[in-house]
């Protein structure tokens, strides 16, 4: 017997404004008179979703904004009713959706702990028993008798999280609550959630945009897209798929925006024919994996002789933070360019940036250092995460290989 | 029955929410809870002044205490109805985030007003001592009368609060409607006056009996009369003025509950 069974679940929302009373009456009268009004436009937030969850499973739900994650949680926690399909739940559901929804600014922290506890289904006695724990965890002891309206937003969230995670229920529903407070408190929340999940044997549904967190905490991950379950299974694989989709989306968006910014200033001596990425075989590409070689190919046409030129190829972020730059001036024997078309490849053996969108810039100077040609955002490319991204620590911008020596024994990274 | 059991399971939440309502209302008010009794007291004073001009037959009972005893159940009904109607919309943030039976909001609104009604009893006791009106054992009816009033206001606020989610017109219209309802209820004047005009004087001719019946279809007519009788006059409630209103309530309660439950499924989408 599964603890949650979802069968052909569909949820539609009516688009646009609710009709006023007058419009509604006219509509009903029209129906009585046999006229058929056009059906209102509907938005399908969930489209024929079916799955089961067994007791004790920790299931992550990921997907882009508007994929239907929150709608699914709302349906499971009985906040809203499905348009079609069935939900069967064998157990008590405790929704930790958006902590602090029930906080009343006029009341003190203490009063709010009791109120919020009651809303989440804790009895007064249970709150009594856990009160000290809650306050201590939230680090709120000095402020507990101050009205919540005087709290900072971080304080509110901390207290709310502490109350929410003291609930006992068979099924926990967690929607983005982990992203609370400062870094130190986030860490604490994360540990608390983890012990909550791992040690008490609850069934947990977790929605988050923090994919690494989801992968780490869940045994199973579902990916939603436009109201459908598009992937369901082993966390790392689903996460990988999500990254791929995510990057595609960002890229489509940012490429368009970045291309508009591409500008070349030229003295007229050189024409820029082409800038782009190629792979080892010379085929044009627009994405590389983090840590893999990056090869930028430039094709220039010289209209007049340009002795001893200096060519600079660099990369920058979409918001013009300059990252790398390589110059032919540092070469032992700088190359010369010939009249007509030249093809130049600049190769970085391992491009170290983490996943994201990056751009190529180019500059050419003549022998005396006068700028002949310069441009930014001449090509836009995507860096995809390395295969083992889920194991990587989250806070970094550069993807550099590291080696370790522990007790005089050397350790290398996985191939 | 299942409904009662579910409500019982949520009793603690209801009590906590009612306690919250009271705390929030009076937290930053210097006069605090005394506001709850100030309203009936002031209205009693105004009514007494009006009475001095128009003359209302009170049958020997001092008018201020008669008016106060009418205002207690009336204000309890009026406030719990208007709070109840706005209670669902007022808790929109909770409704969008978490599930519990939504009828808890109108019920809690009524419970909150029950606490304020309780305080008014001290004022009534003071007035009874002042005017030397002694209570009799008939006051045992009072809890029942209050319970009946509670049900009546629930019938009203269940329907009102559900419609209010879809059309906020209701929330705006309610104060006006309740104002009108006060004049067609025996608040300013006692029910005995209506009885004597219609039943004894036959003021509306052959329609008089019919008009009186229609008048008592309003549950508040019977409630206010019964409250005054049992508290002040030491008489038992007058069934003849109670039953039409009771009939209306018994018929409407299940209908309004079903209406509320049917509307409830889409609250979170619409609110």
TrEMBL record, chain A:
Q: Keywords of this protein's UniProt record, alphabetized?
A: ATP-binding, Nucleotide-binding, Transport
What CDD domains does the database record attribute to this sequence? ABC_KpsT_Wzt, Wzt_C-like
Care to name a GO molecular-function term for this sequence? ATP binding
Q: What residue stretches are annotated with the ABC transporter domain?
A: 27-251
Q: Which Gene3D superfamilies match?
A: abc- transporter (atp binding component) like domain, P-loop containing nucleotide triphosphate hydrolases
Q: What PROSITE patterns does the annotation carry?
A: ABC_TRANSPORTER_1, ABC_TRANSPORTER_2
InterPro entries reported for this sequence: AAA+_ATPase (IPR003593), ABC_transporter-like_ATP-bd (IPR003439), ABC_transporter-like_CS (IPR017871), ABC_transpr_TagH-like (IPR015860), Bact_Polysacc_Export_ATP-bd (IPR050683), P-loop_NTPase (IPR027417), Wzt_C (IPR029439)
Family recorded in the similarity comment: Belongs to the ABC transporter superfamily.
Q: In its UniProt entry, what is this protein called?
A: ABC transporter ATP-binding protein
Q: Which organism is it from?
A: Marichromatium bheemlicum
UniProtKB/TrEMBL annotation, chain B:
- Kindly give the membrane topology term recorded for this protein: Multi-pass membrane protein
User: What is the protein's major site of localization?
Assistant: membrane
**Domain of life, per the record?**
Bacteria
The protein's matches in InterPro entries, at most eight in alphabetical order, are given as: ABC2_TM, ABC2_TM_bact-type
Q: Which residues form the ABC transmembrane type-2 domain?
A: 31-263
Q: Where are the transmembrane segments?
A: 29-54, 60-77, 114-134, 140-163, 170-190, 239-260
> Which PROSITE patterns does this UniProt record tie to the protein?
ABC_TM2
What keywords appear on the UniProt entry? Cell inner membrane, Cell membrane, Membrane, Transmembrane, Transmembrane helix, Transport
Compartments in which it is found: Cell inner membrane
Q: Which family does it belong to?
A: Belongs to the ABC-2 integral membrane protein family.
Protein name from the UniProt record: Transport permease protein
| Source organism of this protein record | Marichromatium bheemlicum
Q: Recite the lineage of the species.
A: Bacteria, Pseudomonadati, Pseudomonadota, Gammaproteobacteria, Chromatiales
């Amino acid at each position: 017997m599964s603890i949650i069974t979802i069968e052909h679940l569909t949820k539609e929302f009516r688009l646009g404004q609710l009709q006023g009373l007058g419009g509604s009456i006219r509509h009903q009268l029209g129906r009585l008179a046999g006229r058929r009004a056009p059906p209102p436009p509907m938005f399908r937030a969930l489209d024929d979703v079916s799955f089961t969850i067994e007791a004790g499973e920790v299931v992550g739900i990921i997907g882009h904004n508007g994929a239907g994650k929150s709608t699914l949680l709302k349906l499971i926690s009985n906040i809203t009713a499905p348009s079609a399909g069935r939900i069967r739940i064998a157990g008590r559901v405790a929704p930790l959706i958006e902590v602090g929804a029930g906080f009343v600014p006029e009341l003190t922290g203490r009063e709010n702990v009791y109120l919020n506890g009651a809303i989440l289904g804790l009895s007064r006695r249970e709150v009594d028993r856990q009160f000290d724990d809650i306050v201590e965890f939230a680090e709120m002891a000095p402020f507990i008798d101050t009205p919540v309206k005087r709290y900072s937003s971080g304080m509110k969230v901390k207290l709310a999280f502490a109350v929410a995670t003291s609930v006992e229920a068979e099924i926990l529903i967690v929607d983005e609550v982990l992203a609370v407070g400062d870094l130190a408190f986030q860490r604490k929340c994360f540990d608390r959630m983890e012990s909550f999940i791992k040690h008490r044997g609850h069934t947990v549904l977790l929605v988050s945009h923090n994919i690494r967190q989801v992968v780490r905490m869940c045994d199973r991950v579902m990916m939603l897209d436009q109201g459908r379950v598009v992937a369901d299974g082993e966390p790392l694989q689903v996460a990988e798929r999500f990254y791929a989709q995510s990057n595609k989306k960002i890229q489509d968006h940012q490429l368009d925006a970045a291309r508009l910014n591409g500008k070349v200033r030229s003295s007229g001596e050189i024409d820029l024919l082409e800038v782009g990425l190629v792979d080892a075989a010379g085929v044009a590409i627009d994405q590389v994996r983090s840590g893999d070689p990056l090869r930028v190919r430039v094709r220039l046409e010289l209209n007049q002789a340009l002795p001893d030129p200096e060519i600079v190829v660099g990369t920058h972020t979409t918001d013009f933070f300059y990252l790398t730059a390589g110059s032919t001036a540092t070469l032992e024997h700088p190359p010369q360019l010939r009249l007509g078309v030249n093809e130049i490849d600049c190769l970085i053996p391992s491009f170290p940036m983490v996943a994201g969108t990056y751009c190529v810039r180019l500059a050419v100077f003549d022998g005396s250092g006068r700028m002949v040609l310069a441009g930014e955002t001449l090509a836009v490319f995507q860096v995809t995460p390395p295969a083992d991204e889920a194991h990587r620590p989250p806070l970094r911008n550069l993807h550099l290989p590291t080696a370790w020596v522990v007790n005089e024994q050397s350790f290398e990274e996985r191939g | 029955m299942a409904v009662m059991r579910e409500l019982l399971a949520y009793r603690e939440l209801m009590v906590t929410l009612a306690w919250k309502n009271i705390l929030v209302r009076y937290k930053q008010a210097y006069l605090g809870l005394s506001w709850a009794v100030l309203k009936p007291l002031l209205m009693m004073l105004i009514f007494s002044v009006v009475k001095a001009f128009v003359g209302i037959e009170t049958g020997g009972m001092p008018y201020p205490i008669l008016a106060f005893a009418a205002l207690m159940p009336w204000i309890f009904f009026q406030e719990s109805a208007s709070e109840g109607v706005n209670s669902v919309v007022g808790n929109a943030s909770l409704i969008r985030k978490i599930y519990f039976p939504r009828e808890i909001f109108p019920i809690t609104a009524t419970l909150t007003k029950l606490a304020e009604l309780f305080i008014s009893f001290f004022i009534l006791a003071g007035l009874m001592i002042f005017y030397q009106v002694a209570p009799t054992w008939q006051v045992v009816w009072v809890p029942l009368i209050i319970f009946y009033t509670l049900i009546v206001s629930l019938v009203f606020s269940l329907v009102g609060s559900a419609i209010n989610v879809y059309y906020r017109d209701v929330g705006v219209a309610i104060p006006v409607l309740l104002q009108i309802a006060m004049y067609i209820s025996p608040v300013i004047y006692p029910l005995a006056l209506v009885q004597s005009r219609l039943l004894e004087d036959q003021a509306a001719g052959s329609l008089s009996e019919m008009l009186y019946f229609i008048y008592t279809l309003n549950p508040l007519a019977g409630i206010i009369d019964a409250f005054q009788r049992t508290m002040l006059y030491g008489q038992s409630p007058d069934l003849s003025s109670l039953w039409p209103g009771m009939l209306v309530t018994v018929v409407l309660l299940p209908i309004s509950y079903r209406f509320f439950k049917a509307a409830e499924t889409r609250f979170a989408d619409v609110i």
